[in-house]
Design brief:
By secondary structure, the protein is an alpha/beta fold. It has two domains: 2-205, 2-enoyl-CoA Hydratase, Chain A, domain 1; 209-265, Lyase 2-enoyl-coa Hydratase, Chain  A, domain 2 (Orthogonal Bundle), CATH 1.10.12. 49% of the residues lie in helices and 18% in strands. It has twelve helices and eleven strands. A hairpin with a 2-residue loop joins strand 2 (9-15) and strand 3. Helix 4 packs across helix 5 and helix 5 (151-158) packs across helix 6. The longest helix has 20 residues, at 82-101. The model has no long low-confidence stretch (mean pLDDT 92).
Length: 266
């Protein structure tokens, strides 16, 4: 296993096809600051360019997944001008967009409390696994703030009606409720978390690499799109493109021939 630990992120490459990005500030509950935002942006931009990569695991060390904004960072922001606040918020918005746009499927491993900006990180994951007992919270309103930059991602993952409640009330809600709402895909005991993540990573890595990326892009592009001639033409083009591709042909031929496809045989 290749690892690249730092004071901010712990990067691991257990196989050529799998990358792990661990938040590595457990002493401050993995809270955001400028450095965390910059490094997450840089790391995911680089991983997005890796054609060999099939799965990314987003995880965290310590008791909390992410507690939101770092207190020292918040103290500094208290004296910011409007222009400084705008620039600072734009960096966070750009980081979330970089993660959301990553073409590689992302599995989120939520082992501890997930608050505020941490909810934004969780929301960009394609598959989210959480341990029983984890607490979620969109806590911004308690501080007289609002979860603006994370809202586009949280609302897509949590749903409009649930977002309406939890953004306005800033209530904590448990992993069981998050699971019932569809925000969390898999809920398990804490001692089963790594096994469940490994199971999902194995499933994802076995799929056609280009097909998995195309499926992720399909969901992003089609969700909310109006039903009509343009969408019908677009989806027909997409399936024709992948059927005619080398990977698509290999996948069908291997299925019909009852053998492993080339991307697994290699």
């Amino acid at each position: 296993m290749q690892t690249s630990p730092s004071s901010i992120l712990d990067l691991r490459r257990p196989t050529p096809h799998v990358a792990e990005v661990w938040l590595n500030r457990p002493e401050v509950r993995n809270a955001f600051n400028d450095d965390v935002i910059a490094e997450l942006t840089q790391v995911f931009a680089k991983l997005s360019q890796d054609e060999d990569l099939r799965v990314i695991v987003l995880a965290a060390h310590g008791k909390a997944f992410c507690a939101g904004a770092d207190l020292n960072w918040m103290r500094a922001m208290a004296d910011y001008s409007w222009e400084q606040n705008r620039g600072d918020a734009q960096k966070l918005a750009d980081m979330l967009w970089t993660l959301y746009q990553c073409p590689v499927p992302v599995v989120g491993r939520i082992q501890g409390d997930c608050y505020a900006g941490g909810m934004g990180l969780a929301a960009i994951c394609d598959v989210l696994v959480a341990a029983e007992g984890v607490t979620f919270c969109l806590s911004e309103a308690r501080l007289g703030l609002l979860p603006a930059t994370i809202a586009p991602y949280v609302m897509r993952a949590l749903g409009e009606q649930a977002s309406r409640r939890y953004m306005v009330t800033a209530e904590r809600f448990g992993a069981d409720e998050a699971h019932a709402l569809g925000f969390v895909h898999e809920l398990c005991r804490a001692d089963q978390l790594d096994a469940k993540v490994a199971e999902l990573v194995s499933v994802l890595a076995a799929n056609g690499p280009k097909a998995a990326r195309a499926c992720k892009r399909l969901v992003r592009d089609v969700a909310g799109a109006p039903l009509g001639a343009e969408l019908r033409a677009d989806t027909a083009r997409r399936i024709a493109d992948i059927r005619a591709s080398e990977e698509g042909r290999e996948g069908v031929q291997s299925f019909l021939g009852k053998r492993k496809p080339g991307w697994l045989a290699r």
